[in-house]
Amino acid sequence: MKKLKLKIKAPVDVEIEEIPVVEVPVVEEPKRTHVFAAKVLKQAINPQWIYCVSNELDLGRIHVAIPRRLTNKLVGKNIQVEAITDITGTSYRYVEGQPH
Q: What is the band of 94 on the pLDDT scale with cuts at 50, 70, 90?
């Protein structure tokens, strides 16, 4: 077996530079703005989303996130939807605990 010879390198003087402090912007937590009733129009291609139209508000067709276990079970039904607003915009989510 061949023995490996270790090369010993001389220590290098390293200058430590100060890292500038970066200010991180404060991100607000998402806020639940309101809850409203909506009728499910159809299932989206992505199984975790459905298309709905609001019964109370004039929002047009909206995309609503749903639990995966409810895929293809809500089409044609009325559901409760909550609107969640943060700095990126408003998203809509299915309200848990509804009898279907």
A: very high
